[in-house]
Amino acid sequence: MIQKPRTLTTVAQPLRVLVAEDGLMNRRLAHGLLTKEGHYVTLADNGAQALSQLRQGRYDVVLMDVEMPIMNGLAATAALRRHERKMGRYTPVIALTSNTNREECLAAGMDAFLNKPLTIGAFRNVLADVMRDSAA
Predict the structure, then answer these.
(1) Strands, sheet with 61-65, edge to edge from the N-terminal-most edge strand
(2) Is the CB of residue 127 less than 8 Å from the CB of residue 120?
(3) Residue 85 CB partners (closer than 8 Å, separation 6+)
(4) What is the per-residue pLDDT for 76?
């Protein structure tokens, strides 16, 4: 049985967020915005590193860049979903991209979609939707 993430009522509490982003400025922006909101942030600069972090620890949500070196976000998310099926866990993954490849992101197992550059308002809205959908 897969454990679902926190429900919408606990979104106001600090979350453990993994940000997988290869662009230094985008990583810094995401880290700054999310820590200012009180969340605990771990950074990865490619999909393979993100997958390793996800296998070692537990996160409430992942912000996953789609286009990264070594392993892109689509491949990392698909590998995460295979691993989670074995482990009985589930971590929401929100795609971070500047492209309009929504269908590709969802097909890979991502739960939602955010355009770059990240804004805290957009993150809050998408996070609320993801947590509500996960609790259903």
Answers:
(1) 40-44, 16-20, 61-65, 93-97, 112-115
(2) no
(3) 2
(4) 97
Distance CA 19, CA 63 (A): 5
Residue 8 CA to residue 85 CA, distance in Å, equals: 23
Q: C-alpha 19: how far from its chain's center? A: 6
pLDDT tens readout for residues 95-116: 998 776 788 888 999 999 888 8
3-state secondary structure of 90: coil
Which of these CATH numbers, 1.10.3720.10, 3.40.50.2300, 3.40.50.300, 3.40.50.720, describes 15-135? 3.40.50.2300
- Which conformational region is residue 79 in: left (phi greater than 0), alpha (psi within -120 to 50 degrees), or beta? alpha
